[in-house]
Model the fold of this input.
Amino acid sequence: MATVQFAEVKKSFGAFPVIKGVNIDIEDGEFVILVGPSGCGKSTLLRMLAGLEHISGGEIRIGGRIVNTLPPKDRDIAMVFQNYALYPHMTVAKNMAFSLMLNSAPQAEIDKRVNYAAGILGLSNLLDRYPRQLSGGQRQRVAMGRAIVRDPQVFLFDEPLSNLDAKLRVAMRAEIKELHHRLKTTTVYVTHDQIEAMTMADKIVVMHDGRVEQIGTPLDLYDNPNNLFVAGFIGSPAMNMIKGRLDADNPQVFVAADGTRLPLARPYPQAVGKNLVYGLRPEYIRLDGTGYRVDVVVIEPTGYETQIVVNFGGSEVTCVFRERVDVRPGEAITIAIDPANVHLFDAEGGQRLAR
Amino acid sequence: MTSITNTDPAVPERSLWSRLIGHRDVLGFLFMLPAAVFLLCFLTYPLGLGVWLGFTDTKIGRDGIFIGLENYQFLLSDQVFWLSVFNTVLYTTVASILKFALGLWLALLLNQHLPFKSFFRAIVLLPWVVPTVLSALAFWWIYDSQFSIVSWSLMKMGVIGSPINFLGDPNTARASVIAANVWRGIPFVAISLLAGLQTIPASLQEAASLDGASSWQRFRYVTLPMLTPIIAVVMTFSVLFTFTDFQLIYVLTKGGPVNATHLMATLSFQRAIPGGQLGEGAAIAVAMIPFLLAAIMFSFFGLQRRKWQQGGGD
Done:
C-alpha cells in the first residue's frame, strides 16, 4: 500500500496537449475515482501512472518515490483492463499465478495466494477453466483476482464495468467496494459513469479537457460544485440550469430569460448586470399549490419517484417528486423552489458564486 | 416452364423440375457441381494418371503396360533417387527452419512502431511477387562462377583471392540454392506471422508488462503461445512449397553438380521428360506423396483447435 501523487503532470501527443498540468494527492488506502466525459484524459492519466504512457512533464510519485521513468514491471501496481486482458491460452489459475510465476515464487506460495484470491472472489470451482469458457462477470473477477494475487501497492481499474450489463454492473460495483474495504489497498479507478463514481469513491476527481475540475468526496461535489461543468456532470437527473440575470433593483431575485422571477437565499449585489445561470437540482423542486404554474412536457413514473419535465423559466426543467403525481403532458402543475439549495453560476467563466 | 412461376409451396401440383429446384440437397449439389468438375479435371485426373503411370513402363511415344511395383523396386536400389530424397529432406529442413526464424524475426520487427511502416511492409513482399523464374535468373547471375557480384565484392574487400564457385561444388551449390529459396520464401512467412501478431491485443502485452514480464518473457509466455496456431498453418504451407520446389533448382543448377542439388521434383521431371521414362518419373513423383501426407497430418493435428480457443459451453 502506498500514497500516490500527481504533481503538475502533463502529456502531449506530438504538439497536441491531452493532460494540461494535473495535481492530485491520493492517501494511503484511499479509493479514488477519476471521472469525466470521454476524451477528458482520465484513462491516459491512469496509463501514465501504470507506466504504459510517457510523461511529458511533471512528476508522478508512488509511495513517495518518483516513478516517471520506471518501467511498468518495477512499479508494483496491478491493473484491471476494460477488456480484462486475460491470457486466453492460460487457465484461470495460471492467469492469476502468472506474475508470481515470473517472480519464481515457490509453488506452495503461488497455490496459497491463488486459492486465497479465488476464495474471496468465488472462483474456486473455475480455476481449471479457460477465459473463453467464462461469462463476462466471471472474467471480470479473474482480472481482479490477478490483481489481488499480486498484493500490489496500488490497484488500477480502467473502466472495468463498462462491458457488463446493467444488473451485473450494480452487483460488481458493490463487490469491488467490499473488496476494497477488505484489502484496503490504494485504488485508482477510471470511469465515465458518474453513478459509479458517486457510489464507490472515497474521493472523486472530476476531469474535463485534460484538467482537474474539482476534487472532493461524492457528497461534497454534489452539494458544492465549483463550476457549471461539475454541477452538470455530477447528479442524475442532471442539475437544471436556467439562464438569466439579477434584478437590478432587488439583487435577491433572479430574472430568467422569459421574465420568470426566481428566489435566492441572499442578495448578490456584486453580480448585478452579469449573465448568470440559476442551478437547481431536480429534487429541490417541490409540489406546492401556491407556487409557479408550469406546463408538463414529459412524465416518467419509476414507482418510487416521479420525474416530470416542465416548461419553466424559458427552458425545460426536470423535477423529481417522491410522491406519485397523476398528470398528463399538456396539463399544468404548481411547483415551489427552496432558495437555500440554489446555486448561482457566472455564465461566462462557469464559476459558482459564493453562497 | 410456366410452373416455375408457381412458387407457393402450399400448392401441391408442381412439376418435377420445380420440386427438384426447391429441394435443398439438389440445389446444394448443383451449386457445388462446377467446383467439383473443376477439381476432377485438374486435380483428381492428373493425380490419378500420375499414380497409374507409376505402375507402367510408359515411355514418351509408346504406351506402356502394367508392371506393378517394378518402377519402385528399381528406385529402391537407385543411388541417384536416394540422393535426391536426401537432398529434398535437407533442402526442406534447412530452408524451412531458416525461413521460420528469419520470417518471425522480420515479423516482430515490422510489428514495432517504425517510421515508413507500410513502405517496409510492402518492400518485404517483393521477393514473393517477383516470378520465381525471374528471381532464379537473377540468382544465377549472382552465383556466376566468374562474374558473381558476391565474389567480386569479397575480392575487392580482400576477403578471398579467387571467385567462389557457387554452383560448381556440391556443398556450396546446396547452400546457394537453399539461400535463394530462403530469400524467396521469407516474405510469405513474415507477412503471415505479422498478420497473426496483429491479432494479439495490445492490452495483453501491457498486462504482462505490469505483471512483471521482461520483453523476452512477454514473447515467450504471451506472444509465442498465441501465435502457435498461425505458425502451424504457415509452416505447413512453407514446408509443402519447399518440398515440391522445382523452378529454382531447374533454373539454377538443373540438379547438378553431380546430382548434388537434385530434388525429387527435378529428378522426376529429368527422368520423365528429357529422359523419356514417363513411368519411372511418375513413380518418383508418387514417392513424394508419403512425405507430403506426413506434413499434412502434422498440420492437421497441429491445427486442431486448442482447448483455449474453444468457445463457452463445455
In short: The radius of gyration of chain B is 26 Å. Chain B has 14 helices and no strands. The interface with chain A takes residues 201, 203-204, 206-214, 217, 221-222, 225-226, 306-312, 314 of chain B (CB under 8 Å).
